[in-house]
Amino acid sequence: MFRRVFPAVALLCVLAAGTAVAQDVVENKTEAPSREPDVIFVPTPREVVAKMLELARVTKDDLVYDLGCGDGRIVIMAARKYGCRAVGFDIDPERIKESRANVAKAGVGHLVKIQQQDIFELDLSPASVVTLYLLPSLNVKLIPQLEKLKPGSRIVSHAFDMRGVKPDKVVRFQSKKRNRTYTIYLWTAPLKKIDESPQEPE
Ligand SMILES: C[S@@+](CC[C@H](N)C(=O)[O-])C[C@H]1O[C@@H](n2cnc3c(N)ncnc32)[C@H](O)[C@@H]1O
After folding, report:
1. 200 CA distance to ligand 1 centroid (A)?
2. In sequence order, which ranges of the chain are alpha helices (DSSP H)?
3. What is the pLDDT of residue 22?
4. 37 CA distance to ligand 1 centroid (A)?
């Protein structure tokens, strides 16, 4: 009896393990880069990340999107510190691998997802907080997508403004550790557009 049942059970175990591994590979797969990144990876210092999340008044009920997530530090800190859900998007497969490894190491895989995607092809409407460390021109290019955020959603940007949109706050954060000042911008949806067309002389 044992001799007949054991091989069948062993085969089922191997098949189940194979399926689990295949599932894992599908969920963690990275694709060849669709195109070059619009900006290279430069990490935001962790003390600045903490300030950005504080300025955005993140709570456990938020869904944070980091557009161009690099090594995943912003989404990881959001989940760890506030217990909220977060998604990091990056176009670079190397960054995706690094972020996913960091998410696993930090033990926040139940809250954080990392997706390989071009940020300019994203629907941002599910997010309640969007974090940026890109370039001024890229922030401006994101305006049509940011305009689809639900009222009350917050956007924070490290270093760069968004020409044509009035920020609610501009905070200068003085790092004693690095002897440097960092600027962080905060906007709240709906965006307050500024008319920048040249004025007719009176
Ligand atoms: C300056 S780093 C910021 C990383 C992280 N958000 C932080 O503040 O530490 C910008 C990131 O954006 C990614 N990136 C550039 N263009 C992108 C695009 N079109 N779609 C998705 N990610 C992009 C880069 O690969 C890089 O990791």
Report:
1. 40
2. 2-27, 46-55, 73-82, 93-106, 136-141, 143-146
3. 37
4. 7
Whether residue 161 lies inside any domain: the answer is yes
Domain membership of residue 96 (yes or no) is yes
30, 34, 40, best to mutate for ligand 1 pocket (most atoms within 8 Å of CB): 40
- As to burial, measured by CB atoms within 10 angstroms (0-12 exposed, 13-18 middle, 19+ buried), residue 188 is middle
Residue 164 burial by Cβ neighbours in a 10 Å radius (0-12, 13-18, 19+): middle
Of 83, 82, 116, 78, whose CA–CA distance to 100 is shortest? 116
As a whole number of angstroms, the distance between CA 54 and CA 186 comes to 11
Is 200 domain-assigned?
A: no
Q: How far apart are CA 46 and CA 14, in angstroms?
A: 43
The strand pairing partners of 158, in sequence order, are 184
Average pLDDT over residues 163-184: 97
- For 11-20, 93-102, 148-157, which range has the lowest pLDDT when averaged over its residues? 11-20
Report the number of distinct structural domains present in the chain.
1
pTM here is: 0.86
